[in-house]
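Quick question, first post here. What does this chain look like in 3D?
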Amino acid sequence: MNLREPYYDWDTIKELLEGADLIKLNEQELQKLARWQGWPKDDPGRSVTNLAEKFNCASICLTRGERGVLLYDQGIRAEHPGFAVSVVDSVGAGDAFLAGLLHALMNHETPQSALTLANALGAFVVGQKGATPVLNMQFIRRLTNRDKI
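> Answer (accepted):
Ran it through. Tokens below.
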């Protein structure tokens, strides 16, 4: 979502949410949405489900920093703790994560498999300098235990 004060308004957010098939947001953004909708702020799993149901959105991805990520995809909830790696440069990691998630979901992988690939790509990028390092498929295969991507 990338909600940045003061550069958004709720009417625009509502319109965009109503047309979304996938929403990726972080915990702070979910708390803002929950407050806006009057949902309890202390139950992110329920807020994700509420968001999917209210806006008829098939997939919601909630990033939770060092606590990993939660994915609600077509009624199925999956979680991934993330991979422990040494951070060199975090620029581009979110984009790599989202690219992996979209690739996996568009290829009809399970939500759990999609999260594994997405987290592996994000983990690879944070371990490199620069936002678009040359992809090391051996690293990704090792993290995901996959022969093919």
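The two ends are 27 Å apart (CA to CA).
The longest strand covers residues 22-26.
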